Amino acid sequence: MKIAKLLTCVFMLFALQTIAHAQTTPADVLKEWERAKAYTKDYLEAMPETGYALKPTPVMRSFAEQMLHLGADNYVFAAAAIGEKSPAGMDQLEKTSEKTKAEVIKNVLASYDYVIATIKKMSAAQLNEKVKLFDRFDLSRELALGKGFEHQTHHRGQTTVYLRLAGATPPQEKLF
Question: Rounded CA gap, 49 and 89, in Å?
Fold first, then answer.
């Protein structure tokens, strides 16, 4: 009986240690952002040129502005995760006068390229380092990138309605 208890304790300690040391790698984070880039590209390409100016209501962003906002904050979150200033400024992409399909696609995909390049520079240890996001929130670099991922997913998801209103079909979901 004592041996069974001892073995159970050893097994549990080993399991807890394994769980404690399990961590997300930069390659894991990178894979998710590359998938998100491809998925967003599908959304950008699905919208006809005329739909880029579409606003579901007058107070809402246009499709182009929604996607440029997504791109602008990709820069902001990635820069914050590495402790730099965003190379695109705050919401500068959204304020640009060029809202053609070609320009929006170019600018939004460039924002993903910046995030991807940022992740490629990080080690697993750096992902776990703490940063102060927006001078308010203490969290890991990985979580800062995760908040950026959540943000871009939210705005891309909103544009599903825009595509439907324009008579376009949203792309199939890309979970993997």
Answer: 26
Whether the Cβ atoms of residue 119 and residue 29 lie closer than 8 Å to each other: yes
Summarised one tens digit per residue, pLDDT across range 24-46 is: 899 999 999 999 999 999 999 99
Q: Which helix (H) or strand (E) segment is 140 a member of?
A: strand 137-140
Beta-carbon contacts of 74 under 8 Å, excluding residues fewer than 6 positions away, are 108, 111, 112, 114, 115, 148, 152
As given in the structure block, the two tokens for residue 83 are 């402790």
For residue 86, give both structure tokens.
Answer: 């965003």
Strand partners, 139: 131
3-state SS assignment for residue 132: strand
Contact in structure between 43 and 163 (CB atoms under 8 Å): yes
- β-partners of residue 138 are 132
Question: How far does Cα 36 stand from its chain's mean position?
Answer: 7
